[in-house]
Design a protein that fits this description.
By secondary structure, the protein is of the alpha+beta class. It contains 10 helices and 8 strands. The strands form 2 sheets. Strands 1-4-5-8 form a 4-stranded mixed sheet, covered by helices on one side. Strands 2-3-7-6 form a 4-stranded antiparallel sheet, with no helix packed on it. A hairpin with a 2-residue loop joins strand 2 and strand 3. The longest helix has 37 residues. The mean pLDDT is 94.
Length: 386
C-alpha cells in the first residue's frame, strides 16, 4: 500500500474539480430536478475539462489515470452539492469494461465519446425477479446465424434517456439450466425491440430510473464485449469500480451535508453561544466527520488495489468501502438535518432531499446485507446460508 497522503497531482485534481462543482452547486441540481432535466451543462463542462474520462486510456481520449482519479472527481462534485450519478455508470463501469475487454473497434467507437462527455452509456444488470441474486438473471442471448437475439427485462437502470447505448448483462445459456454464463452486450438505445419505461421514484434526482424491455433485440456479432466464456471476469471488472464510485458518491454527499451543518452550528445562537459550542451538537458532527474520513481511506485503498490490477483484493476492499461510505453518509445527513432542526426540512437549506438520496448508498448497487454476507464468507471464511 502506498502512502495514504495524496499526491500533489491528486490534490490539484481535487481543487480543480471542487472549483467546477462550486460554480454549479446544489442550486443547479435542485433546478434541474424541478425542471425534469438531466444535468447536461455540468456533464458537458466536466467532459470538456477532461474530468469524465480521467480513468480511460490516453490513446482513446482519456486521462490515462484510474478509478482513484475518477473517484476524486465524483467525491468533489458531490461535496459541492452537484454530484453526477452517471459517473458511476458511463466511464467507471462501461468505460472500464470496454477499455479492458473491448475490441479495437469498440474502443475507437465508444471510449473517446465517453471520455469527453459527448456520448453516454448506461448499464443494465438488475432484474425484477433476481434482486441481489445475479445468478437468477433471465435475460438471454441466443445466436441466430452470426447475429445475437437478446430477450429480457431490466429495472432501476439509471439515465437511459440520456444514454446512446446500454451495456446489458445477459446469459448465453437458458436460465432454466441454472448455469451462470454471463455475457455483456452493447445495445444502442435506438435498436428495434428496445423499450424503456420511466419508474416513478420518490428520490429527487436529475437522473431518472427506467425499466427496460428487450424483445428479441437483434444485435450484430460485434455487439458482444470480450469473450463469451469469460463473462464473469469481465462483469466484475465493472462491478468493483461501481462499488468504489458509489462510495465516492456517498462520501461527497456526506461531506456536503456535514459542511452545511457545521456552518449553521457556527452561526446559530439560541442561548449565549453558537449551538456548535455545545457538545450535544459538536460531538455527533465530529463523529460524522471521522466516519467519512475512515470510509474515504478504505475507498482509496480499494481504488489503489483495483488500479494496480489486484481484482481479488479490490473486490474485498471495494465492498467494505461501499458499506462504510453508505453508513457514514446516512449518519452524516441525518445529523446534519437534526442539527438544523426545522430548518433542516426546508427547501432553503436543501438537506431534506438528501435523506432519501443517502439511502441509495445503503441499497444500491448491492445491499449492505449482501456485503456483510460477502465479508462473512469471503473474508472470514464462514459458511454460506444460501
Amino acid at each position: 500500500m502506498t502512502a495514504v497522503i495524496e499526491s500533489e497531482e491528486h490534490k490539484a485534481l481535487r481543487d480543480a474539480v471542487a472549483a467546477l462543482g462550486k460554480r454549479y452547486g446544489r442550486d443547479y441540481v435542485t433546478r434541474t430536478v424541478a425542471e425534469g432535466k438531466p444535468p447536461a451543462e455540468l456533464w458537458s463542462d466536466a467532459g470538456k475539462l477532461g474530468y469524465l474520462g480521467v480513468n480511460l486510456p490516453e490513446e482513446y481520449g482519456g486521462g490515462g489515470g484510474g478509478i482513484a482519479e475518477l473517484s476524486i472527481v465524483l467525491e468533489e462534485l458531490g461535496a459541492a452539492g452537484s454530484p453526477l450519478l452517471m459517473l458511476v455508470v458511463s466511464p467507471a463501469i462501461c468505460g472500464t469494461v470496454i477499455a479492458r475487454f473491448g475490441t479495437e473497434e469498440q474502443k475507437r467507437r465508444w471510449l473517446p465519446g465517453l471520455a469527453d462527455g459527448t456520448r453516454l452509456m448506461a448499464f443494465g444488470i438488475t432484474e425484477p425477479d433476481a434482486g441481489s441474486n445475479s445468478h437468477r438473471i433471465t435475460t438471454t442471448a441466443r445466436r441466430d446465424g452470426t447475429d445475437w437475439l437478446l430477450t429480457g427485462r431490466k429495472v432501476f437502470i439509471s439515465g437511459v434517456d440520456m444514454a446512446d447505448a446500454v451495456l446489458i448483462v445477459g446469459r448465453t445459456e437458458d436460465a432454466r439450466t441454472g448455469t451462470l454464463k454471463p455475457c455483456l452486450f452493447i445495445v444502442p438505445t435506438d435498436t428495434e425491440g428496445f423499450h424503456k419505461q420511466p419508474i416513478a421514484m420518490e428520490l429527487s434526482a436529475a437522473e431518472k430510473q427506467f425499466e427496460l424491455t428487450l424483445d428479441d433485440v437483434r444485435l450484430p456479432a460485434e455487439a458482444l464485449v470480450g469473450d463469451e466464456d469469460a463473462g464473469l471476469l469481465q462483469l466484475f471488472a465493472g462491478l468493483n469500480p461501481e462499488r468504489i464510485m458509489t462510495a465516492a458518491f456517498a462520501i461527497g454527499m456526506g461531506r456536503y451535508a456535514l459542511a452545511r451543518a457545521v456552518g449553521y452550528a457556527r452561526e446559530r445562537t439560541v442561548w449565549k453561544a453558537p449551538i456548535g459550542a455545545h457538545q450535544a451538537i459538536a460531538h455527533p458532527l465530529a463523529q460524522a466527520h471521522i466516519d467519512l474520513e475512515l470510509a474515504r481511506l478504505m475507498m482509496q485503498k480499494a481504488a489503489f488495489l483495483y488500479d494496480s490490477g489486484d481484482d481479488i483484493g479490490a473486490g474485498e476492499a471495494a465492498n467494505m468501502a461501499k458499506y462504510a461510505a453508505g453508513e457514514a453518509c446516512v449518519r452524516a445527513v441525518d445529523q446534519a438535518v437534526h442539527t438544523l432542526g426545522g430548518n433542516g426540512l426546508t427547501r432553503e437549506f436543501g438537506l431534506a432531499s438528501l435523506i432519501t438520496a443517502a439511502r441509495v448508498a445503503r441499497i444500491a448497487p448491492v445491499s449492505r446485507e449482501m456485503i456483510l454476507n460477502y465479508v462473512s464468507h469471503q473474508s472470514l471464511g464462514l459458511p454460506k446460508s444460501y
